[in-house]
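User: Good morning. I'm curious how zinc ion would be positioned relative to this chain. Could you predict the structure with it bound?
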Amino acid sequence: MKILKKPYYGIYFGDKFYKKLKYFKKKISIKIILVDSLTKKYCLHYFLYKTYLLKKKKIIKISSGEKKKNIETCKIIWKKLIKMNADRNSLFLNLGGGVITDMGAFACSVFKRGINFINIPTTLLSMIDASIGGKTGINFFSLKNEIGLFNFPKKIIIDNNFLKTLSFNEMKSGLSEIIKYGLISDINLWNFLKKSIFFKKKIKYDNNIIYQSIKIKNNIIDKDPIEKGLRKILNFGHTIGHAIESYFIFNLKKLISHGHSIAIGMICESWISYKMKMIKKKEFKEIYNVLSRIYSKIEIYNKDIEKIIYFIKHDKKNENKKIKFSLIKKLGYCLYNIEVDYELIKKSIQNSKIINLI
Ligand SMILES: NC(=O)c1ccc[n+]([C@@H]2O[C@H](COP(=O)([O-])OP(=O)(O)OC[C@H]3O[C@@H](n4cnc5c(N)ncnc54)[C@H](O)[C@@H]3O)[C@@H](O)[C@H]2O)c1
Ligand SMILES: [Zn+2]
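Assistant: Good morning! Here's the predicted structure, ligand included:
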């Protein structure tokens, strides 16, 4: 049981904290819990039991999935908040994965110019990444997280009991962001994960690895809360990864997890690092070998490469129409604002052995 206090924005570890949190006891006009179809099924009852909120709450349920992270779903949430007479004294609780914490935080941050919210992440990915760091947002016009703002939750509760019902695929999705932390800033974490994956040792998602991951993210955010510079390294793998995720979800209408897309993005972007002589071939191969053991190949239509490049051109890190990447300089160290040539980006997708061009 650990608490990360400021500069860690009040992150509480372990299930014993629920009762102690003053927010659950405080006289708050309405406590509203946002869930999706699966967190309603698997997480809500346990959460209500732990927090003694069984009688004093209102529930907003939305369908699950990345495709629902949009303005239409926000409209549903806002209409329900109005019907419930929610006001600035209400408390909004986001109980779910990254889609719920991103969109719920956004929806309540702009409702009546902002009501307080708490994140209770229920996926590995949202525990170690999405619920932390104050980025809120929704997809718009087929672009990932195009509309949003920085706004930090009042509290974050990390309870890994929620992981008991999470699918293997979703656990793998979270692992991808933990691997990213190793590659951008912690060689020991990278070596630990590499050995576990090569020797097929089970990785235990206990509070230690979750705590370690959050600490890495927070150390970065603490130095650069609103992504003026250093925080961009957290986007390693995401320039190409987000483009692949958008292409799958909005063009192919196929499901792909966020972490899977980012793993593919990390392979392509490490290849770019190698071609730009930032890392050695041996290091690129090491990254490829680890990631390709866990994440399966994807298929992309050759004719669609331009569609992927379109998404890359809209990446939030770009400046003055120049495509800027966060690229690793060595294992455990990452640079940001690196301009990459359009042709090299294209080749990284065409030459990637993890992408089958059909
Ligand atoms: N704000 C940030 O800094 C940040 C960082 C990383 C990712 N993200 C965003 O997070 C999103 C991805 O998050 P995610 O992977 O958690 O996706 P998600 O919220 O869609 O959850 C994945 C699936 O797991 C289900 N689920 C959630 N908890 C469960 C549980 N305990 N048991 C069984 N099923 C459960 C959900 O219903 C969903 O079907 C993306 O939209 C991404 O852009 C944001
Ligand atoms: Zn991510």
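The longest helix spans residues 168-185. The chain has two domains: 3-165, 169-357.
Let me know if you'd like a different ligand tried.
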